[in-house]
Specification:
Elements lengths: L1 H7 L15 E2 L3 E4 L4 E7 L7 E8 L5 E8 L4 E5 L4 E6 L3 E7 L7 E11 L4 E2 L6 E5 L3 H4 L13
The chain binds 2-acetamido-2-deoxy-beta-D-glucopyranose (6 copies).
């Protein structure tokens, strides 16, 4: 009874936190034919003169950090997962991840993330809908030798 009263009075400030989030727009799907792609993350926020961390994650659970850039427009530090070849281009409201040397088995959903670190308050994004990056095979590399044992089921 007390709880419902508190809820009715909007006693819990955390309820309002969600309003203070950056929204990220990224294209739903990108088809990759030549093993490279530019994934643009467009934010409802101007990063100009802010210190931020912009990153890209792979997988439905965002388990793999693909690439990240930490800093501001004049000075930034990039880190890349060793399984990826990534270059980051910074704009005021857009960060583009240029991925090269993609493999077919890296086809997955990728999520953009943005965090504003300074000046306060800290603000990050509402989880985006993500982009499915579909890496199409190069015909020559895709030929799969038949298994001589006959036990393995290859795609
Ligand atoms: C994400 O998907 C939802 C539901 O399909 C849609 O309403 C929303 O506009 C999408 N958000 C963006 C940023 O595209
Ligand atoms: C991605 O962007 C880079 C740098 O802006 C450009 O050189 C490259 O051609 C672009 N690649 C694709 C596939 O759009
Ligand atoms: C960018 O970051 C560097 C190093 O942290 C700092 O010295 C510089 O003042 C910052 N520039 C802006 C425009 O915030
Ligand atoms: C990324 O790929 C480009 C084009 O294939 C290549 O020139 C560059 O050396 C690669 N960078 C790394 C770190 O592998
Ligand atoms: C970035 O934003 C700043 C401040 O809003 C503005 O002065 C500048 O012209 C913008 N740059 C671009 C390339 O839009
Ligand atoms: C993905 O494919 C590449 C090239 O075929 C291979 O080197 C790499 O080990 C594979 N990665 C995984 C996680 O299977």
């Amino acid at each position: 009874m007390i709880l419902s009263l508190l809820l009715a009075l909007n006693f819990f400030p955390s309820i309002q936190v969600a309003e203070n989030k950056i929204l990220v727009n990224q294209s739903p799907m990108l088809v990759v034919n030549n093993n490279e792609v530019n994934l643009s993350c467009k934010y409802t926020y101007n990063l100009f003169s802010k210190e931020f961390r912009a990153s890209l994650y792979k997988g439905v659970d965002s388990a793999v950090e693909v690439c990240a850039v930490n800093g501001n427009h004049s000075k930034s530090l990039q880190s890349t997962n060793k399984e990826f070849n990534c270059t980051v281009n910074l704009g005021n409201e857009t960060v583009t991840f240029y991925l090269q040397d993609l493999y077919v088995n890296q086809t997955d959903i990728y999520f953009c993330k943005i965090e504003v670190l300074y000046p306060p308050p800290y603000i990050d994004n509402e989880k985006s809908n993500g982009t499915i990056i579909h890496v199409k095979g190069n015909a020559r590399l895709d030929q799969c030798p038949l298994s001589s044992s006959g036990f393995q089921l290859q795609s």
